[in-house]
Amino acid sequence: MRAFNFSEVLTLLLLATVWTIVLSLVALIGGGILGLLVTMLRISKNRVLSTVSRFFIAFIQGTPLLMQLFIIFFGIPILLGFDVPAFLSASIALILYSAAYLADIWRGSIESIPKAQWEAGTALGLSWMQQFTYVILPQAVKVSIPPTIGFAVQVIKNTSLTSIIGYVELTRQGQILNNVTFRPFTIFAMVGAIYFAVCYPLSLYSKRLEAKLTLASR
Questions:
Q1: Domain 6-217 indexed as CATH 2.40.30.40
Q2: What is the pTM for the complete model shown?
Q3: Which among 46, 41, 44, 139 has a CA at the least distance from the CA of 99?
């Protein structure tokens, strides 16, 4: 046990926050790229592709993220015979998790656009891809921004689960510091305050943006 030093503890927690944000960005960027692909497969007229994407979304959403972390972190070494670093395991799990939820958000945004918009594109002689790119997508992007930002907040908070496989993000750093200072209330109050400082502005921005877009659509 060592003496509690506020400035030292805060510095270590803020450094861990950087790794939390890095992991969140990896998850959102990677998940966004994969999620866009899954979205396109989901709205595809090809039944096989649509079914595959639907199963992927249902499986990821229907199983706990913690279980997915365990499967990747412990399962890959068993199947492939080599260890996977905690950061890589956490990244893969969170990318798949983000892709499934973002694909559902974006599919819903696309399907929320009135069918008349597609019909108008057809009447103008546009191909399906042209209709999607120039008519549907710009409107769907506006609809999808608020829930996408809201989901980003969930990803940031869910990075805390990666502490269970040894990735040293904010929650894990809090556990480590608590083990050496035995000041759980103070340590985790600081951890909670940092999560709040990161997540609350995003949540607030998401709500304001949603209200603004709703008002503009009237």
A1: no
A2: 0.91
A3: 41
